[in-house]
Amino acid sequence: MKKLLIANWKMHYGPIKAGAWIRAFRRERLPKDVDIAVAVPFVSLAAARASLGRASIPALAAQNVFWAEEGAFTGEISPSMLKEFGTEYCLVGHSERRAHLGETDEMVQKKAAALQKAGIIPVICVGETEAQRKRGEANKVVRAQVQAAITDLKMDGKVPVAIAYEPVWAIGSGKPCTAQEAKQMHEVIRVVLQKKLGAGADEIRIIYGGSVDLRNVSEYVTTTGIDGCLVGGASLDPRNFGLLCRAANPA
Ligand code: PEP
Q: What is the CA(31)–ligand 1 centre distance, in A?
């Protein structure tokens, strides 16, 4: 399975800067054996697509979606609208959305299913808070988040899904979770996937996110059970993200 590296710009870069980032990133020497995507704000998808031209790397990802196809949902964006931009991936349930916008497990479940139906790979973000970890509840919390999110997912011929394990305390904090701690949680997640989805679960990539940078990326991607990384702050600079992608290359 190829490693997957996703840049998450969060709420950075409107269309002009997004276009410039894509053009600069395209000048980097990009590895062929790593799948690379960039999660851009909705308003920058068109500019990112235009700057890509005929190129398909990086793949485009959105940072959020609504679960209905159309209707009276002011301000929301549907999976098929994202598909029109050639969006291949979409983050769901990022902890910042859970914390600031009240995104619940039930909403994550509906969004993931709607994306899969539309042929977009949902990247389901899960992770415990620092308090939950301190109370020894990390496994239980993450297990419940994954179980809820995959309730309506199918593995028969549908687009795959990906899970991003992102401990909340490691996001943007400069305090990454160790590769061994991440590996242990990825094993917990893998068991949940296997129970629900059977053998197909082994095709699901489980990636790690939380203060990934140039110093630690190769340790994550060379650890068994870690299938790539979701990178926030360290992806804002296209050159730096290019270096991260190269560091994730197994060759
Ligand atoms: C993220 O945005 O999902 C993330 C992991 O951010 P950072 O790399 O900045 O911790």
A: 22
pLDDT recorded at residue 12: 98
Q: Hey, how many other C-beta atoms are within 10 angstroms of the C-beta on 224?
A: 9
Kindly name the residue from 88, 94, 96, 128 that is annotated as catalytic: 94
Q: Which residue has the tokens 């600069």?
A: 24
Pocket flag, ligand 1, residue 10 (CB < 6 Å) = yes
Q: Is the CB of 229 under 6 A from ligand 1?
A: no
The question of whether 69 is a catalytic residue gets the answer: no
pLDDT digits (tens, 9 = 90+) for 51-109: 999 999 999 999 999 999 999 999 999 999 999 989 999 999 999 999 999 999 999 99
Mean pLDDT calculated for residue range 145-169 = 91
Res 250: pLDDT: 72
Residues sharing a CB contact under 8 Å with residue 7, sequence separation 6 or more, in sequence order: 36, 37, 38, 39, 58, 231, 235, 241
Q: Which atom of ligand 1 is nearest to the CA of 209?
A: 5
166: Cβ below 6 Å to ligand 1?
yes
**pLDDT recorded at residue 251:** 64
Task: State in words which class domain 3-247 has.
Answer: alpha beta
Domain ranges of the chain: 3-247
Is 12 known to be catalytic?
Answer: no
